[in-house]
Design brief:
The chain has eight helices and twelve strands. By secondary structure, the chain is α/β, with parallel strands linked by helices. Helix 2 packs parallel to helix 3 and helix 6 crosses helix 8. The radius of gyration is 18 Å and the shape is globular.
Length: 226
């Protein structure tokens, strides 16, 4: 279990409807990971993802309310590069995952061995891409480590600015709708368009990035990198 100490900066979400299995996994990972969150179904898993933005999502497929496959499809709409580990009792479950084009996925057969799960987490953690993506003349980002650099120096944003910026960064050069912003940044709490517009104006002013307004729809973070 010594190698699991490599996970000390990792946050993990466990979506598993079997309470005993879920608690065993949470208990097994907690001593080694920075944060471990649990959810008893896919719907609660999606809500926890929006709230905590974990580095890794570990999920069963067969769950009530919203199954693991449906949950993953909703998550990659918000964060296309999210990585998953999938618990499966049946080999055919892997076929469902073939339609998820972005984000690495590993499959582990039940019952889950904590040491094996730890190795899988390490595998996904340490194959992260260190490449910086240039968004503007001054701003570059590391998507995998969620770091923002201005003129080569790491900078930090307020909580809401940070959540909003990374929603745009995950979906670079793609439309991010007002509904997506409300769902991911404000966790479906009531928010006006003017409040969203104000925080976007502050982002533009502080970072000097191009956030193109698409009338009545949302915004696109436009990258200078070709």
């Amino acid at each position: 279990m010594q190698t699991l100490k490599l996970l000390q900066s990792l946050s993990v979400l466990i979506a598993e409807d079997d309470e005993m299995a879920r608690e065993l996994i949470i208990g097994g990972l907690k001593p080694y990971c920075a944060n471990v969150y649990g959810a008893s179904d896919g719907l609660l898993g999606l809500e926890s993802f929006k709230k905590f933005n974990p580095d890794m999502v570990i999920t069963d497929i067969h769950m009530p309310m919203m199954n693991g496959f449906e949950m993953m499809k909703e998550i990659v709409k918000l964060k296309p590069h999210q990585k998953f580990i999938v618990f499966t009792s049946y080999d055919t479950d892997a076929n469902l995952m073939k339609s998820i084009e972005q984000g690495a996925a590993l499959f582990l057969k039940k019952p889950i061995d904590i040491t094996e799960l730890g190795r899988a987490l390490i595998t996904l953690t340490y194959e992260k891409d260190e490449r910086l993506i240039k968004i503007s003349e001054q701003i570059s980002v590391n998507l995998e480590k969620e770091k923002i650099y201005k003129n080569g120096k790491e900078i930090y944003l307020t909580f809401l600015q940070n959540k909003l910026f990374w929603l745009f960064a995950y979906n670079l050069n793609k439309l991010v709708t007002y509904d997506q912003i409300s769902e991911f940044v404000y966790e479906n709490e009531p928010v006006s368009k003017s409040a969203i517009q104000n925080i976007i104006l502050r982002l533009k002013r502080e970072l000097g990035v191009k956030l193109k307004n698409i009338s009545e729809s949302g915004y696109v973070l436009v990258s200078d990198e070709k």
